[in-house]
Design brief:
Elements: E1 10-16, E2 20-27, E3 32-39, H1 45-63, E4 70-77, E5 80-81, E6 88-90, E7 98-100, H2 103-110, E8 114-118, H3 119-130, E9 139-144, E10 148-154, E11 157-158, H4 183-187, H5 191-195, H6 197-207, H7 226-234, H8 238-262, E12 266-270, H9 271-274, H10 277-291, H11 294-299, E13 301-304, H12 310-329
Parallel strand pairs: 1-4, 4-8, 9-12, 12-13
Antiparallel strand pairs: 1-2, 2-3, 5-6, 6-7, 9-10, 10-11
Helix pairs in contact: 1-2, 3-12, 6-8, 7-8, 8-10
């Protein structure tokens, strides 16, 4: 059965993160019809599940739809999931979320089928369905914000991996020492620790000792953010330009490894850092052309996300569609 024949034609989607939770009504054609967003409840899983259900009920009420007019609920979550059950083993950014059944209570209270995916996978599905990855057979999405995560579509299939963690590229190692003795040194050898937001801030703070007249020095009290660095760079600040160039080089090195390993058609940079394409992409492409396998480097498209924060919501909805297709057809299929 083709997904074009699926009825009803609307889905509910949830993008759950450590700081915010968004819920939306998404059409089968990939339009976000309405949404709600609130700060994430960090009072444990019971309160968190109640918040998700309440948010979804608000979306249903706002839409004037009946529950039987909605196909399913798709949820993206930064968590380790059991391969078959969607049971949450651990969600490190959600307080107390270990060994949690999210699926059953949401299903029971809304009387709708519920499907849960790792948020890196929902992000790449959103880009593949409705974003920069649409129309490609192989698509890598790298989300760079306070951390680095991602997902991949290869040969027209979402790659989940043995533990449903495929795409956790923030753990890629860019260290010069094979065996670091301290935990801090090991953690700072990961791509995430170097190129994501906190790493950008840390490198800027260290460099302030050599360029003290930077605009960034005016931001005191530990309030410096990666966004401040990008803003100052656009204003011509010498230190900020240096840090942004370093960041682009670090991102380029990580992307080079991915391009050489997977030979994808397109690599999409998302997240609050990845969105700074005007500052980052030229240098990222230069580094990839220098370091990656030459034929793969010459073929790949490297771009910023078209969807921004909508990628997770759209991907959660599309994940539900694909899971329903899998149940009906016995295998995932493209539209």
């Amino acid at each position: 059965m083709s997904s074009d024949n699926l009825t009803p034609v609307n889905l509910l989607a949830v993008d759950l993160g450590g700081t915010k939770v968004a819920a939306a009504l998404v059409s089968r054609q990939g339009q976000i019809l309405l949404r709600r967003q609130v700060p994430t409840c960090q009072d444990g899983p019971e309160a968190g599940i109640a918040q998700i259900v309440d948010l979804l009920r608000q979306v249903i009420n706002d839409s004037d739809l009946q529950v039987n007019e909605i196909l399913a609920v798709g949820i993206g979550i930064p968590a380790v999931l059991e391969p078959q059950s969607d049971h949450i083993i651990w969600a490190p950014n959600l307080e107390g979320w270990r060994d949690v059944d999210l699926r059953s209570p949401v299903q029971m209270q809304l009387d709708l089928p519920v499907f849960i995916e790792y948020d890196g996978h929902t992000a790449v599905l959103g880009e593949w369905w409705m974003g920069a990855g649409k129309g490609y057979n192989s698509c890598i999405d790298i989300i760079i914000g306070t951390g680095i995560g991602g997902g991949m579509i290869l040969e027209g299939q979402l790659v989940r991996g043995l533990n449903r963690l495929a795409g956790a590229v923030g753990w890629t190692v860019l260290a010069s020492q094979a065996f670091a003795n301290s935990t801090t040194n090991r953690s700072r050898g990961h791509w995430e620790s170097l190129a994501a937001g906190p790493g950008i801030v840390r490198r800027a703070q260290v460099s302030l000792t050599t360029i003290p007249n930077s605009k960034l020095a005016q931001i005191t009290g530990g309030q410096l953010t990666a966004r401040d660095v990008f803003v100052a760079s656009r204003q011509g600040d010498e230190l900020a330009i240096k840090i942004v160039d370093e960041t682009a080089e670090l991102i380029g090195l990580g992307v080079s490894n991915i391009v050489s390993l997977l030979n994808p058609e397109i690599v999409i940079l998302g997240g609050s850092v990845g969105a700074q394409g005007d500052l980052l992409l030229p240098r990222v492409r230069e580094v990839v052309n220098h370091w990656a396998q030459p034929i793969s480097a010459g073929s790949v498209i490297i771009t910023s996300s078209d969807l921004g924060t909508d990628a997770g919501l759209l991907g959660a909805a599309y994940a539900a569609i694909l899971r329903i297709q899998a149940a009906e057809n016995g295998a995932l299929e493209r539209r």
